[in-house]
Amino acid sequence: MQPAELLERYASGERDFSGIDLSYCDLSGAVLSGANFTKAKLKNTNLQGACLNGVNLRDSYIVETNLVNAQLRGANLSSSNFQGALLNGANLSDAYLRGAYLMRSDLILATLERADLQGAYLWCSHLYRSNLSDANLSSANLYEANLIDVELQDAHLQGSDLRCANLTRASLVGANLTQANLTQANLTDADLSEVSLRRARLVKVRCQGANLSRANLSGAVLDLSVLETTRLFETVLPDGRTLSTRDENLALSA
């Protein structure tokens, strides 16, 4: 289907375009809110700046598609393949992305507040300065993801794979990282105050300048040396001890 026909049918009130093939089409700036594109094929489609709020793109093929600055608030994108897609500046607030494939995709400056990314595949993705506050990333794969300067306040990251992820200067205040795997992650200058890291794995982690004030590390597996320059005010340690004010920067082995 050509873009002109799609837009004409949408304007006439049609909303069901399930299974449609729009690969290589130019739909930049198009308004298609609320449309049903279940199992659609949109490879290399140009949707830059498009308004797609509330669309259903479940199980769709959206590989290498341009969604820069697109509006996808509340969209259903579960189990869709976004590998290599450009989503820089896109608004995905409240979007449903469970089990979505976003490997090597660009989500720089994207807004994903309250998005459901449970079990999503985000390894090697670029999320620099994106907003994932209160997002559900439980069991998500974020291996080697670029999370520099990302907002992850109150995010749900239980059981997530953050091995080798770069979380430099990231804000994770109040986040839940219970049983998360942060092996070889970079947490330099990250704010992890009031986070739950119960039974998490923090082996070979870089934590210089990180803030773990009031964090819960009970049962966590970690290398003691990586926390030597970490702020540990009122932090619950792996053995259950809580550091008092005067113990603020004591080594964990004390």
Keywords:
two-stranded parallel sheet, little secondary structure, 5peptide_repeat, 1 helix, disordered C terminus, Pentapeptide repeat-containing protein, 254 residues, repeat, 2 strands
| Subunit arrangement of the protein | single chain
Helix/strand-derived category reads little secondary structure
Number of helices: 1
Largest pleated sheet: 2 strands, parallel
Helix content: under 10%
What order do the strands of the largest sheet run in, or round the barrel if closed? 1-2
The parts where pLDDT drops under 50 for at least 5 residues are 250-254
User: From N to C, what is the helix and strand string?
Assistant: HEE
Mean pLDDT rating = 94
Number of strands: 2
First and last CA, distance: 69 Å
Strand coverage percent? under 5%
Shape: elongated
**Cα-atom radius of gyration:** 20 Å
Secondary-structure blueprint:
Elements lengths: L2 H9 L189 E2 L18 E2 L32
Parallel strand pairs: 1-2
InterPro entries: 5peptide_repeat
Keywords: Repeat
Pfam families: Pentapeptide
Quick recap of the structure?
By secondary structure, the chain is mostly loops. The chain has 1 helix and 2 strands.
How does this structure look, described?
The structure is a single chain. By secondary structure, this protein is mostly loops. Helix content is 4%, strand content 2%. It contains one helix and two strands. It has one helix at 3-11; strands spanning 201-202, 221-222. The protein has a two-stranded parallel ribbon. The longest helix is centred in the N-terminal third of the chain and has 9 residues, at 3-11. The radius of gyration is 20 Å and the shape is elongated. The protein starts with a helix and ends in a 32-residue tail after the last strand. Mean pLDDT is 94; it is low at 250-254.
